[in-house]
């Protein structure tokens, strides 16, 4: 016995799971872009240079703030301890990039003294951070 009076149920597409998937993907992309920012040093006003080039990611950062304080990877260090501090970070048989972030108000003599200490460490390559005008 067939019931011919029953109406056909129209086909429905439920879009709620699709919206959930889209929001999950959107959340993934938003969270992943937050981790793309590099924070290598303390904020200083870098001098401007038209010939500045972007170097590969640094393994160690030496920062000289406007007050003349020296930091090695965000930790205060004296000029006398800087050479040993960098030497401890150098891996044997590998080159290490040391980026020097010096505020433009710091005296030239102090920057040269820091550069001299870093250059004494074998395997450490020195780069000076600038920003384009």
What features would you describe in this structure?
This protein has 133 residues and is an alpha/beta fold. It has a domain at 60-128: Nucleotidyltransferase, domain 5 (2-Layer Sandwich). The mean pLDDT is 82. A five-stranded mixed sheet has the order 3-2-1-4-5, covered by helices on one side. Strand 4 (96-102), helix 3 and strand 5 form a beta-alpha-beta unit. It has three helices and five strands; from the N terminus they run αβββαβαβ.
Q: Count all strands and give the number.
A: 5
Main sheet characteristics: 5 strands, mixed
**Percent of residues in β-strands:** 15-25%
From the 3D coordinates, which CATH architecture of the domain at 60-128 would you assign?
2-Layer Sandwich
How far apart the termini lie comes to: 86 Å
Widest beta sheet: strand line-up: 3-2-1-4-5
**CATH class assignment of the domain at 60-128:** Alpha Beta
Low-confidence stretches: none
Secondary-structure element order, as H and E?
HEEEHEHE
Q: Compute the number of helices.
A: 3
CA-based gyration radius:
28 Å
Mean pLDDT: 82
Shape: elongated
The residue fraction in helices comes out at 25-40%
